[in-house]
Amino acid sequence: RLLIIDFGSQVTQLIARRLRELNVYCEIHPYQGITMDFVRAMAPRAIIFSGGPDSVTREGSPRAPQEIFDLGVPILGICYGQQVMMEQLGGKVVSGDGTAEFGRAYVTPEGRLDLLAGWFDEGREQVWMSHGDHVSQIAPGFAVYGTSPNAPFAITADPARHFYAVQFHPEVHHTPNGRKLYENFVRLAGFSGDWTMGAYRDEAVANIRKQIGDKRVICALSGGVDSSVAAALIHEAVGDQLTCVFVDHGLLRQGEADEVVGMFRDHMNLQVIHAQEQDLFLDALEGVSDPETKRKTIGRLFIDVFQKYADQIDGAEFLAQGTLYPDVIESVSFSGGPSVTIKSHHNVGGLPEKMGLKLVEPLRELFKDEVRDLGRELGLPAHFIGRHPFPGPGLAIRCPGEITRDKLDILRKADAVYIDQIRKHGLYDEIWQAFVAILPVRTVGVMGDGRTYDYACALRAVTSVDGMTADYYPFSHEFLGETATRIINEVKGINRVTYDVTSKPPGTIEWE
Ligand code: XMP
After folding, report:
1. 126 — phi, psi (to 5°)?
2. The last residue of a domain, from among 188, 216, 251
3. CA of 398 to the centre of ligand 1 (A)
4. Has 79 been annotated as catalytic?
5. Pair 269, 370 in one domain
6. ipTM score assigned to the predicted complex
7. Identified catalytic residue from 26, 79, 244, 457
8. 211 and 122, same structural domain?
9. Final residue of a domain: which of 385, 410, 437?
């Protein structure tokens, strides 16, 4: 195993992710808890020092235990981690002399280093820098293997001891060849690279058992990938100590409630309470057309309903959530920031405190695609895992203007035809998210020999990596024409179909 000592960088989890991609097992531990006893007990085969926000020139700033350097295991220091290594091994670090570097930089090689096999084939490498301090004198035994205009010690190493220290962040996307560097490091440390998602699952199950003991857990199952995988994993760990609540707010897609409840209850044997609260939500939404009022109404009722059902479960002490790593960093780095609320997102974030529950978040370290891998590993069907995201407020935000039961019925039918078209044409997996929005206008049409006066709808399909930015999907005219014809023929109540070609920004993915 590999130990990552976390000095507080925003991207420490990305290091873990790069290592998992290389099938190497690693654990991240905050520097505060790292004692030599801990390290000896863990017996890591290699250690990585992460970056961090502090300055090693500040008195009392984080360090590693000095004896860690005598263990004889390879160590890679990144950014702050590099400076800690230099400082603790006898080099010097200075701050604030105008050589801070943030963003893209180019490193050119000096000499040859095994860690850099496959680097510099094109002469120089793009890297991502993010540092205020820099090393001014390297530690004894170290030599320089790469420089950038503002970092004369961008890459340093003591190859005999397998100590490597880099100023930049090889784990981020903007260091395009960074993966190679990690690959070389773990190869030099002697890892065979045979760790798998199956092993992750076993670890996670053991940790959940330890955390929960013989207590009860409840989970708000939405049918989305994250809560589904979290529920399946926790069920594997503690079986019937887990009860899921699936809240049906009447704003789900066609067949969705049956599909989700059927799969978890009948196929996977989870205890699932199907909360049928359609009337409660739809009555409260009657006459509401303001998007934020819709979102807030649904969010508030969701919490009430969840609490009502949870109260029926005796002795629940834990609340399970499918929080992913990107959610964790976003909430940390943006909390308290001056950002404007574009949309009030629907989540159960406030629940645990309100209900006095402790959180279980077994997916906190994972990224979306890793969650999908884990889901496959847990035996969730591929079509389920590959489903497009679906927002908590459901069809309410795809029905601009007033929501009526009639409109929702029409919308559900049109959406089903559209998704069927996308699947039939083999496009589903190329698209991040696709749906129909029913518009609050009626238009005149002619069908057969008669006049129609029905709703117009908009088709939406976008590509995206993370939902933060998006582009509309370039369907062929044939596809769009065929889909429009099918919707108008098969869905009574719609006589006009449009295609939304707005990217995000300036648009958002959902209509409200
Ligand atoms: P927007 O519309 O903001 O959506 O571009 C970005 C992504 O987030 C989803 N979304 C939500 N998901 N609760 C959720 O769980 C919400 O309140 C919510 N609003 C939007 C949206 O479907 C898209 O994937």
Report:
1. -80, 135
2. 188
3. 11
4. yes
5. yes
6. 0.98
7. 79
8. no
9. 385
Ligand 1 pocket test: pick from 387, 469, 510 the residue with the most ligand atoms within 8 Å of its Cβ.
510
Q: Position of tokens 């390879």?
A: 74
Q: What is the pLDDT along the chain (512 residues), one digit of tens a residue?
A: 999 999 998 889 899 999 999 999 898 899 999 999 999 999 999 999 999 989 999 999 999 999 999 999 999 999 999 999 999 999 999 987 777 778 889 999 999 999 999 999 989 999 998 888 889 999 999 999 999 988 899 999 999 999 999 999 999 888 999 999 999 999 999 999 998 999 999 999 999 999 999 999 999 998 889 999 999 999 999 999 999 999 999 999 999 999 999 999 988 999 999 999 999 999 999 999 999 999 999 999 998 999 899 888 988 999 998 888 777 665 544 333 345 667 777 665 566 677 788 999 999 888 888 899 999 999 999 988 999 999 999 999 999 999 999 999 999 999 999 999 999 999 999 999 999 999 999 999 999 899 999 999 999 999 987 787 889 999 999 999 999 999 999 999 999 999 999 998 899 999 99
Active site annotation includes 169 = yes
Measure the CA–CA gap between 401 and 255, rounded to whole angstroms: 24
Number of domains observed in the structure of the chain: 3
72 is in an annotated binding site: no
- Whether 285 maps to a domain, the answer reads yes
Catalytic annotation, pick one of 131, 134, 162, 169:
169
User: 391 CA distance to ligand 1 centroid (A)?
Assistant: 5
What strands, in cross-sheet order, belong to the sheet with 271-276? 271-276, 242-248, 216-220, 316-320, 358-360
Active site residue 26: no
CATH number at residue 422: 3.30.300.10
Q: Taking Cα atoms as reference points, which of 136, 83, 144, 80 lies closest to residue 115?
A: 144
Taking phi over 0 as left and psi of -120 to 50 as alpha, with beta for the rest, 130 belongs to beta
Full-model pTM:
0.79
- The one-letter code for the residue type at 68 is I
Residue 312 lies in a domain: yes
Strands (E) across 210-258 are located at 216-220, 242-248
Domain that holds residue 106: 2-188
